[in-house]
Amino acid sequence: MNVYDFDQTIYHGDSTVDFYLYCVRHRPLMIYSWPGTAAAFVLYQAKIINKTQFKRQMYQFLRAVGDTEQLVEKFWDSHIKKIKSWYRNDTQRADDVIISASPEFLLRPACRRLGIAHLMASRVDAHTGAYTGVNCWGEEKVRRFREKFGDAQIETFYSDSLSDSPLAEIAQKAWIVRGDERIDWDEWARKKKKK
């Protein structure tokens, strides 16, 4: 099986940011969440709160959205085209797995449209923004993979970030994705260490 990160990997951009901006246009009342999000961002940058705590505050905007599921479907009507062609044309298989820090409620409709059956992502309530568990990032991705697939072998892993090294280490082959270019993981890691 092949395993993929989602944002900046098979999707051009960050789906959470894109959905947030989509909500700003379609549910402008969510601007009331901006002061709390800005304060949480400052605390996160100062390392006073962790990434999960920051995202928990950021997702409070969902309280103003109301019909999140319907809005997510409309979002994907216009954004599914941002799935990279190399994924659709070259590598997509029936047993693909997506493991992402983005919220599950946001990625599930995209995966359904793409025919991807296996999704592991951050568990966020689509109406309140509350997290159930931790941000699906770093070592948590490996834990979630093992929880679902046991000792199954990852043939090829793709990600845009070295923060996904824990998954790359358990894959037979790993690639860093930069735009539409795929670069050997070890080669990229060596290049980054030299800088």
Protein architecture, described:
The chain has nine helices and six strands, in the order βαααααβαβαβαββα. With 195 residues, it is of the alpha/beta class. The protein has one domain: Rossmann fold (3-Layer(aba) Sandwich), CATH 3.40.50. Helix 2 runs antiparallel to helix 3 and helix 4 crosses helix 6. The radius of gyration is 17 Å and the shape is globular. This is HAD-IB family phosphatase. Keywords: Membrane, Transmembrane, Transmembrane helix.
Task: Describe this protein with a few key phrases.
Rossmann fold, alpha/beta, six-stranded mixed sheet, 195 residues, 45% helix, globular, 9 helices
**What's the main sheet like?**
6 strands, mixed
Read across the widest sheet, the strand sequence of neighbours is: 3-2-1-4-5-6
What separation lies between the terminal Cα atoms?
33 Å
Given the C-alpha coordinates, what overall shape results? globular
As a percent range, the share of strand residues is: 15-25%
Structural class: alpha/beta
Low-confidence stretches: none
CATH superfamily: HAD superfamily/HAD-like
| Name of the top-level CATH class | Alpha Beta
Individual helix count: 9
Order of SSEs = EHHHHHEHEHEHEEH
The gist of it:
Helices cover 45% and strands 17% of the residues.
Blueprint of the fold:
Layout: E1 2-4, H1 15-26, H2 34-45, H3 51-58, H4 68-79, H5 85-91, E2 97-103, H6 104-114, E3 118-122, H7 139-149, E4 154-159, H8 165-169, E5 171-178, E6 181-184, H9 185-194
Helix pairs in contact: 2-3, 4-6
